[in-house]
Amino acid sequence: MADLNGKVALVTGGTSGIGRATVERLARDGATLLFTGSNAEAARSVTDATGARFLKSRVENPDDWAAIEATVRADYGRLDIMFANAGVESGDGSIESIDLAAWDKILSVNLTGVMLTVKSAVRLMRANPGGPTGSIIINSSMSAHRAMGNFVAYSTTKTAVLALCKSVALHCATEGTQIRCNAILPGVVETDMIRGVIDRSPDPAAARGMFEGMAPMKRMAQVGEVAALVAFLASEDAAFISGSEYLIDGATLAGAQGV
Question: What span is annotated as the signal peptide, if there is one (predicted)?
């Protein structure tokens, strides 16, 4: 367990999947939790399970971020951890099939939304009592290094946020702050969404085998395993780690088996 007692954390897209698991993990580790999303009904069960506070908002909306910043300042007086997790892929396709509206939507959430998330985090962390300090974690994907031909917008955004992460880390360090920024790159994770895809397929066993076979470790990551990596990067044990990217993909991108 990470020691996050006394820290205030905010997770975007915290109503399901990796986001929800991270809210649960950081709360168990002692942090005071806020999380965002657009589904108030789904948020209710997260709040009931963890005591975390839900802030209904959309990451691509600057006005929502102004309201979130005001809430954090007024009610908590600090921000120590930001997990930029929210993302979408609906409507994606290949370079030939994707339409402009879908491209714009995915970029607005996965890239502009992450930029606005990080921008707010840096502003809040600069004002922390005792000096500018904090940990920002961006949820990228192994697709940042192994693009998918049928998910051109998703792959593009997940690569772009790595450059954003490194730029932010350099800026915060050269500004003399102790604000860190790192990225995680999950492989295939067994979320409710993936289980739904498996269950709806004509042959669920074959579909599960396909997903599990994508990693040399022959299984999918569990959401709790991804949340544990976020908790480590949020903790003081990672105090000298910034501008880094962490694969959590069961050796998928490690190399080739050979012949």
Answer: none
Could you read off the pLDDT of 117-152 as tens digits, one per residue?
999 999 999 999 999 999 999 999 999 999 999 999
Nearest to 124 by CA among 190, 189, 172, 196: 172
CATH code for the domain defined by 8-186+222-248: 3.40.50.720
The CA distance from 181 to 12, in Å, is 15
Could you tell me whether strands 178-186 and 245-248 are parallel, antiparallel, or unpaired per DSSP bridges?
parallel
**Catalytic one of 83, 103, 151, 154:** 154
Q: What is the pLDDT of residues 30-69, one digit of tens each?
A: 999 999 999 999 999 999 999 999 999 999 999 999 999 9
Tokens (6 digits) for 26: 């950081």
- If you write DSSP's letter for every residue of 116-137 in order, what string do you get? HHHHHHHHHHHT-TTSSEEEEE
DSSP string, 221-238: BPHHHHHHHHHHHHSGGG
Q: What dihedral angle (degrees, nearest 10) is formed by the CA atoms of 70, 74, 80, 83?
A: -40
Residues with Cβ < 8 Å from 170, sequence gap 6 or more?
Answer: 243
Full-model pTM: 0.96
Other CB atoms closer than 10 Å to residue 200's CB: what's the count? Answer: 9
Q: Where are the domains of the chain?
A: 8-186+222-248, 191-220
Question: Tell me, what DSSP letter sits at residue 2?
Answer: -
Residue carrying structure tokens 């892929």: 89
DSSP secondary structure letter of residue 215: S
Rg of the chain (C-alpha set):
18
